[in-house]
Amino acid sequence: MGIEIDVVVGYPINDEMERVLGLAEAVGEPVTVTFLWEGREEAERAVLVPAATLALWEHWAPSAYPTSDPAGENRALAEEPELAHPAEFGVFTLFRRRVGGRTAVARKGVVVAELLDPDEAHWLQEKARNARQGFMDLKQKAAFEEFLARQASLDDQ
User: Of 17, 76, 90, 147, which is most buried, counting CB atoms within 10 Å of its CB?
Assistant: First the structure.
C-alpha cells in the first residue's frame, strides 16, 4: 500500500510523528507506519489513511470489515481495550476508539486521517475497488443500454 515509513515514538511531543501525519494528509494516500512505543517490546503496525480516502473506501465497500466474535473464544482471555486519554503530537491529536481498534487523527478539531489495522485497510481498499468497478452511473448505464439495443440479436447472427 502506498508509502511505508518507520516512526519511533518516544515522547508525547514528537516532531517526527507530526511530520508523518502531515505527510499522509498532504499526499492523500495511505501511509504504512510502524510505531515503536516507549516501554513496549513489540512494534505496532498501522496504516494511516487520510479521511477523504477512508470516506471513499467506506462509501464503496458493500459491508463492514468482519471482526472476530469473542463469544466463540474464551472471554476470560479476551483483552479489554485500553482506555487512554487523547495523545497530542504537535498540532495533531490521536483519539483511540475502544471498539474496532481504530485511532482518529484530528487537527484543530477536524479528523484528517485514521489509523487502521493493515488487514482492515487492505480489505476496505479491495472491497471498495471491486464494488466501484462494477458500478455504472446513470449516463454510463443509458449509453450501455443504447449500445446493446443496437446490437444484432443472437438469432440474426
Answer: 17
Dihedral sign computed on CA atoms, order 86, 40, 112, 63: negative
Would you mind telling me the total number of residues written for the chain in this entry? 157
CA angle 28, 29, 33 (to 5 degrees): 120
Question: Mapping DSSP to helix (H, G, I), strand (E, B) and coil, where does residue 114 land?
Answer: strand
| Rounded Cα gap, residues 37 and 86, in angstroms | 15
Going by their DSSP bridges, the two strands 103-107 and 110-116 should be labelled as antiparallel
Distance CA 91, CA 105 (A): 10
